[in-house]
């Protein structure tokens, strides 16, 4: 179902963002009732997270990228409202600290990936090192150019070790960004969200789109796919991300349950042995 709702980038696809409509809404999802649908998906996500957490077989990593104001924070707030905070780990990547900058670009990322049983959410990610870094020439071209391959190797390593990876690009139009920035200026309650750098970055819109096209084209793999999310409508963005996460986790549900049942059987058998040897008092 996911693929009709948003766009999973096939490995090797040459992405042109202009071909993807940020206003797109699949007819099966309606604005009316969106909250209820999101609530139901959230409930199921919470149940699946419990299984992921108990089974300890996999971790889940969700990468969120998008232009300024595309809704990374809002997505996290709405999509994960019903998951157990104990099993969830959100990391926001900012300008590297001197210590981070003194290491290879994946050092801080690797340090932040979720361990088994945990849902990790990256608000920005390793992709900043082929986005902002490329747009602002923060390293020489030959350095950022080889990073696509390095990222693919890194993500393969994570996937080989049981990390379920989903990467979402929140696709908004430039007009929508203008409207969202304008809303922050007009609304005193939203003014705290104003960041002068967001305004300064706007003149690099085309450069960022190009950098995103290359990242999406070169780093969408079977084990770590990119999804382009039509994100002009916030309610729709939340629904399709929640739906894609739930669809992906559902595929592992039987495996996680079978594993837990097997563990339960073993524990009961061990308990019976203890009882037989009279070492358990009162049970
Ligand atoms: P956000 O915009 O995510 O809410 P901030 O306003 O603190 O949070 O922005 C974080 C900034 O850190 C962004 O401008 C982003 O481009 C920058 N950043 C993240 N990773 C890197 C990196 N590897 N190199 C340079 N800048 C980075």
UniProtKB/TrEMBL annotation:
Polyphosphate kinase-2-related domain segment(s): 31-253
Keywords carried by this UniProt record: Kinase, Transferase
UniProt superkingdom: Bacteria
Keyword Transferase appears in the UniProt entry: yes
Name of this protein: PPK2 family polyphosphate--nucleotide phosphotransferase
Organism: Dictyobacter formicarum
